[in-house]
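User: I'm curious whether this sequence folds into something compact or stays loose and floppy. Could you predict its structure so I can see for myself?
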Amino acid sequence: MNATDLAQRAYAPTAAPTKSHRSVEYEVIARITFRLKQAIETDKFPQLLEALHENRKLWRTLAVEVADDNNLLPSELRARIFYLAEFTDIHTSKVIAKQATPVALLEINTAILRGLKQTGASS
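Assistant: Here's the prediction. I'll summarize afterward.
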């Protein structure tokens, strides 16, 4: 391999395109939602607990993000996301105590994924 070939490789575009912040959010939420859905379908409580823990961490992170004054989302959307985070936390506790089903959590995540997809997150 000569110097020209090495230079062309060094300055060639990378194979992996840069992902947008929204596409990364979409991937994380999709992965957690898939695990939650699998746990619900297989009806295995230990797997459900793991998925619920991941989902709760996700929503707590989202709540912290939208509570930040520097967050650029519209204030009404930030408030709605924060409310969903609170609901998710309370409902998760009820699911763990076997006082509710996890279906509502799955539906919330699926709705969020649809919204992200409509805004171009998966592109």
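Summary: Residues 45-67 form the longest helix (23 residues). The radius of gyration is 19 Å.
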